[in-house]
């Protein structure tokens, strides 16, 4: 069953399985299927929903808002993000400037059909905007009641420290970071997690199944399923590529008996694994079919024994990616390209 946990050093409780709609709503999945997936999430006990203004250039927020319209707002936690180019993609339509934050929060609220979001997240760090300007804008968004808390996504340990220090000075809370984290991709463990623990910030992790690779659906020598992320030409194939080597797929295949012994699917094992980390509050799952939601939610209260965790580490030892420098190296080092 889904559990409800405090997020960071705050009084906000979120479901430890979060439904997210990156690469699905408004893009890969028809609206009727998207609405059915959200309904399945609600029926499974999920109360927390994650989206972003950039997903399908706003369409994902619109679909999510429609799906949640009949639900009591006080019973939900809605998270969205700001940073990447949106709207007309003109010269001020990206980054974390005061102008872009203020315009983006208003646009997100309109699309979501709500007066506020529970957590407003900086989708990446903006190297072209002074951190003081960004954090003052977030403080004003909170004071205006348009967001209750602030989070970040894919920030380095040093950047998280900046966020903590400035938010404390300005009288609001940064309570979460949203990084990629799974059995294969562990770059947050050496630096980001220790810094987060120091400041009472927790992780809301995306891609707990490594874009579906940890589900076991991809096999060495086999053609990728036609309806899978690896076959998606709208962005899915690009995002999954780092996990599609023969070496990784061979190692992942060896997890099948581990999952079977625990009475889990490999997807459930992958999600449960992320939740064993004390600094992880929630894992984000996506879905193109309601059945996927119903199956993956079963991982919410699974406890993996310590000896099995060690066994997993042994199986994956040669393919684990854990270089903390990748958080910085994979981040944008200038504002994303936009029109002049």
From TrEMBL:
<comment type="similarity">
    <text>Belongs to the shaker potassium channel beta subunit family.</text>
</comment>
<feature type="domain" description="NADP-dependent oxidoreductase">
    <location>
        <begin position="17"/>
        <end position="316"/>
    </location>
</feature>
<dbReference type="InterPro" id="IPR036812">
    <property type="entry name" value="NAD(P)_OxRdtase_dom_sf"/>
</dbReference>
<dbReference type="InterPro" id="IPR023210">
    <property type="entry name" value="NADP_OxRdtase_dom"/>
</dbReference>
<keyword id="KW-0521">NADP</keyword>
<dbReference type="InterPro" id="IPR005399">
    <property type="entry name" value="K_chnl_volt-dep_bsu_KCNAB-rel"/>
</dbReference>
<dbReference type="Pfam" id="PF00248">
    <property type="entry name" value="Aldo_ket_red"/>
</dbReference>
<keyword id="KW-0560">Oxidoreductase</keyword>
<protein>
    <submittedName>
        <fullName>Aldo/keto reductase family protein</fullName>
    </submittedName>
</protein>
